[in-house]
Amino acid sequence: MPLQVQIAKQFPDFALDVSFTAADAPLGILGPSGAGKTILLRSIAGLERPDRGRIELNGRVLFDSGARIRVPARDRRVGLLFQHYALFPHCTVAENIAFGLRHLPAGDRSRRLAELIERTRAQGLEGRYPRELSGGEQQRVALARALSIEPEALLLDEPLSALDTHLRSQVETQLQETFAGYGRPALLVTHNIEEAYRLGDQLLVLAHGRVSAFGAKEEIFRRPPTLEVAQLTGCKNFSRARPVADHMIEALDWGCRLRVDQVLERPVARVGIRAHHIDFVDSSSERGVEENVLRCRLVRSSETPFRITLFLRLREAPPESGEHDLQAEVFKEKWDRFRDRGQPWHVRLPPDSLFLLPE
Amino acid sequence: MASLAFAGTMDWSPVRISLETSVTATAITLAVGLAAAAWRERRRGPATALVDGIFLLPLVLPPTVVGFLLLLLFGRNGPLGKLLLRFGTTVVFSWPATVIAAAVVSFPLMYLTARAALEQVDSRVLEAARTLGASEWRVFREVALPLAWPGVLAGTILSFARALGEFGATLMLAGNLPGRTATIPVAIYFAVESDDMTRAFAWCAVDIIISLTLVAGLYHWTRAQGRARWMRR
After folding, report:
1. Complex ipTM over 0.90
2. Residue A112 and residue A29 share a domain
3. In angstroms, how far is CA B182 from the centroid of its own chain?
4. Rounded-to-integer distance, Cα B115 and Cα B137, Å
5. Å from B228 to nearest chain A CA?
6. How far does CA A336 lie from the centroid of its chain?
7. Do residue A131 and residue B128 have CB atoms under 8 angstroms apart?
């Protein structure tokens, strides 16, 4: 693997202990604020000194506490895009981008500069100062600057968080293009689930300074390994559970038995399902006979422009559970088809959408 | 007519000495103060508090005490004085002594202002420069210093003003040798002492004019720098 990271650092109130490898592809690093995402990137870039561990990039050892190797940031050839871009305020756009090209002869320098400006679509901005740029423009310039050193790995710290909503998708598309043409490890730190999913090929979930999940993003979303990862990846519905038969569990908080596809090696503690996987079925089908179909009532709802979130109370759920038992999310078109049906409604929890969690 | 005649008989050397001394001392203070501030910026810990204390001592002590200590240091039996004697030279009661006294006394102002200005610089911008392959010298020269420049300039003005007004330490170390070490403040003191009130008054007027012109000019120039395009909103 081109990038191998295994580092630990102790802080007064926090410990980072992380180990992973990254391929020549974008890796999304997802975690809540305070999970250690930024420290991780800074350690790889050489701006933070881990207590122990090892960082290797394309066979070059950048850090090895055992061998007392610590390559300074300037020699690492790791491009870092700062959260607020950290452009040089006293330099023009062209000067900012050309800062990392100083070692080249003048001819090559201007050719590379033009190339970078074109690649990040910063044409026409060359003579401006960072203060005179919009957030999206600053981001493009910062990206061009980070790419100027032809980095062997690209690290992006919350690249979209400082942007207005309407700019995000536009900049995100540009980032995708950049990644596509980059072909080297690109680590993208974010606390936005959808961003991480869209931009990363693989996904690493970081929580409390530790890797709580790492692998193919589809798999992590389909079968999160722990309750924490399930929550961090946006899952809202959980119930305590115990196995009762082969592929059969009892969901204690939902007051029902459910068929599940997944087989868990370790003892099952919980069952979960994502809000958009809950299916609303026609109540005319035979009640109670159909597998994984539950009766429920609407407690309240919350709308976004195209979707609606429904908070549901299950009829069979024990009374001590909270205000609602399930949170379902559907497109408004679908919602319009069953909103006027008489309650109780019937929801189906498809066996292949249910996932099991260990303690 | 009388005043013109007076001006004609007047020895203008204190003006030349004062200006030469202040300019040289400020140049030295700028270089040493910046280096000290940049060095201090990278360090944390208990030892730095002591270093700070020593650096700021000339600001706290009466100038006569500073002058006396410098005299001990550069005198015939002082460590630096002995070293200089070996090269067949001495600085006490010579023009370099006025520069040393002015530089030492104005150093803390430069050091404090430069340090504050460097601390103001966003550390992430410096880190960005490092990830782009810049050496520490280049980070300082091309990023930290330009961003801290308005503050450094303010420190330079303060230091120059302090050097121009230096009296106590200069008198102790350089004495009053007309045409060689007698700066305007020293000349004023000895004019008053010898009851030559007209001369003292003339020197005071000259001093006020020089100070006002220089400080107002520098202030104007700094303001112009402060309106640089990259700083504008």
Report:
1. no
2. yes
3. 17
4. 17
5. 9
6. 32
7. no
Nearest CB to A131; choose among B146, B147, B230: B230
Beta-bridged to residue A153, according to DSSP, are A78
- C-alpha distances out from residue B73 to A27, B78, B82, B100, Å: 63, 4, 9, 12
pLDDT in tens, B29-80: 999 999 999 998 888 778 888 889 999 999 999 999 999 999 999 998 899 9
Residue A230 falls within a domain, yes or no? no
pTM (2 decimals)?
A: 0.84
- Domain contains A175: yes
| pLDDT in the model for residue A321 | 64
Task: Kindly give, in sequence order, each residue whose CB lies less than 8 Å from that of residue A70, ignoring residues fewer than 6 positions away.
Answer: A46, A49, A62, A63
Q: Please give the Cα distance from B74 to B81 (Å, whole number).
A: 4
DSSP state string for A143-202: HHHHHHT--SEEEEESTTTTS-HHHHHHHHHHHHHHHHHH-S-EEEEES-HHHHHHH-SE
Interface contact B133-A102, CB threshold 8 A? yes
The per-residue pLDDT for range A300-340, each reduced to its tens digit, is: 999 999 999 999 999 888 877 678 999 999 999 999 888 88
Tell me whether residues A129 and B229 touch, CB distance under 8 A.
Answer: yes
**Per CATH, the architecture of B13-183 is what?**
Orthogonal Bundle (1.10)
Give the chain A residue nearest B144 (alpha carbons): A88
> Domain residue spans in chain B?
13-183
Chain A nearest C-alpha distance from B73 (Å)? 41
Radius of gyration of chain A (CA): 25
B3 touches chain A (CB under 8 A): no
Chain B nearest-CA distance from A177, in A, is 22
Nearest-angstrom CA–CA distance, A292 and A286:
12
